[in-house]
Structures are given as C-alpha cells and as structure tokens.
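Propose amino acids for all 201 sites.
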C-alpha cells in the first residue's frame, strides 16, 4: 500500500482535513443560524444577505479544498492500472456526469436552495423532483464525489481514490444530519400552515 500512497506527504493530510472541514463547517454554521439567526444578525437582520454570505463562504472553501486535493495528487505516486485508456475514459465520464449533476441541481435550486436557505427561513414553495433530483436525492454530493473520483483516475493516483472514499463517507455522515433536519423544517412549515388554515375557517 505504501508504494501507491505516500503517507509521508503533508499535503495528503491537509487535503483530508479540508474534505472533513467543509461539510462540518456549513452544517455547524447553518444550525447556529437556524437556532440563533447568527448570520442574519451579522447581515443587519437581512436573512437573504446572510444566506448569500454563507453561499460565498461555502463556494470559496470548496475552491480551496479542490486546490488542496489537486496539490495532494501531484505529490503522490501514480499506478499504471489507473493510467490505462479505460481508466482515463472512465475519468472523463465521471467528471462530466458529476459536473452535470452539480450544475443542474444548482440551477434547479437557485442560490438560496443550494446554500442552505431553508435554515434562514427562506423555503422553497415545493420540493424539486425533476432532473437531477429524479436520479438521486443528493445530486450535489454524489456529483461532487464522482468528480473527485474522476480526477483521481485522470491523474492515475491511488491516493485520490482513497481521498474520494473519505469524501463519500463524510458526505454520507453529513446527509444523515441534513436530511432529517431539513425535512423537519418543511414539516414544521406545513404544520403551521395547516394550523393557520384551521383558524381561518
């Protein structure tokens, strides 16, 4: 294993740290916002501006994480099996499909839907069920994971495959927290709307 993954490289651990940090950060900050309106207060009481600020932060952190990931790959040994035509072709398909999932989900959700606007009280009228959400319930997470794996295969780096496994694991953990919490936000809205409807009768 050591001949294919150089565990002595600090860049490997920096990339792994960034992979773990990002979803931990946005989930922690979003929950603080939901409970205490922290970012809304910092934005002068404007929830939309607070959400935009979080969106810019998450986007920037994603760029930094990706830069750390690519730097880590450059410092790692390659494996001949990952440099074959088949592997390179699969890499292209994975990156292309991954980007399609990410970009189309962002288009369908908009900025506030993509960047945790529901934690700010900015809720969508209806759950998005069209493409890419009819393919997977979490197209951004799975699309991002596919892009990580595709990049690892493109550069022929086993360490990239290992980091992709970490990405997948971290995203699964994040989803186990995010999905129930988000579902409860919308369930609460539905309960409140029904209660108002009964009062109005």
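Proposal:
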């Amino acid at each position: 294993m050591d001949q294919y993954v150089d565990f002595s490289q600090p860049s490997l651990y920096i990339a792994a740290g960034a992979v773990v940090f990002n979803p931990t950060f946005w989930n922690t900050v979003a929950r603080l916002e939901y409970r205490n309106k922290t970012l809304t207060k910092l934005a002068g009481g404007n929830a939309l501006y607070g959400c935009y600020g979080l969106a810019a932060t998450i986007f920037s952190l994603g760029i930094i994480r990706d830069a750390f990931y690519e730097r880590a790959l450059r410092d790692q040994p390659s494996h001949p099996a990952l440099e074959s035509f088949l592997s390179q072709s699969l890499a292209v398909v994975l990156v292309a499909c991954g980007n399609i999932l990410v970009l189309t989900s962002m288009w369908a959700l908009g900025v506030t839907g993509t960047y945790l606007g529901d934690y700010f009280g900015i809720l969508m009228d209806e759950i998005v069920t069209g493409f890419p959400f009819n393919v997977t319930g979490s197209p951004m997470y799975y699309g991002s994971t596919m892009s990580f794996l595709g990049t690892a295969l493109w550069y022929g780096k086993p360490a990239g495959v290992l980091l992709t496994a970490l990405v997948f694991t971290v995203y699964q953990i994040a989803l186990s927290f995010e999905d129930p919490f988000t579902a409860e936000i919308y369930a609460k809205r539905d309960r409140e709307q029904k209660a108002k409807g009964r009062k109005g009768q």
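The mean pLDDT is 93. The chain has one domain: 10-200.
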